[in-house]
Amino acid sequence: MTPSLRVMLVVKAELMLRVGFHVSIAGTIDEAVDRAVELGCNTFQMFTRTPRAWAAGELSSDEVRAFVDKVNSYDVKPVFAHVPYLLNLASARQDVYARSVKALKEELARCRRLEVPFLVTHLGSHLGAGKQKGFERIVRAVDEAYRFGGAGVVLLLENTAGTRNSMGGRFEDISRIVSSVAKPEFVGVCFDTAHGFASGYDLRAVKAVEETLRVFDEVIGFDRLKLVHLNDSWGGWNSRVDRHQHIGLGKIGEKGFRAILHSRLRELPLILETPWEGTLRDVDNLRKVKELAGEI
To answer: Distances in Å between the alpha carbon of 211 and those of 195, 198, 202, 205?
Structure first.
């Protein structure tokens, strides 16, 4: 190999993004891999069950085997799972809290079977009981989930948009949880750009992105960050509005995403959760990301 070709390959490797979408598991769960590949993803996120019900259907040995084989064959890695919408690990309602802890345990077990290394969870709402109670419940839930297992799956705490009574809108909140759990080695962070922007972390220019990442590193530690949910924000900076927008068409804008995609965040897997309504498709958002990242 000539020196010039070697340099070209190194540069290409440095530019290559790990980027994908949250994809449907309709049919059998292995079909999620097919959908990701058809979209041009080299990583993806999914639910392991229907996200709007407490009950979870059993995963057959055949579909688990097919899922693992397809992930390895297509090399769409890493795979991320997301907990169902119903979970509220900070809930002041004992029935909801108990169901949430049980579901978290089940999700960790399902991830282990599917060889999915990361499980993303929202931190929920304290429902007016106060942050202190919310922190206590979240830490207790994580400790309970990992008490008798969980090894092999890292739980990623996702930042929120700072809506009323929500937990995890500030980096300090996430740091407090990580430092309080019994097994912090099993806990990481998922940073959602739309949520972060809505909760007061500026991402609209190079210096703003650098400052946000400096604060993240200082408060939590950049090594804890395992995933970026790459979404534009319908609401403005510090608006506390949790609503995603297509890449470049929201309040973060193209300038902001160009800065994000040329920062340290490009080294991490990027999952898009852009809207399904409107004229833009997933492939349009993927193309925009690659364009702003300088890959096309």
So the answer is: 16, 16, 8, 10
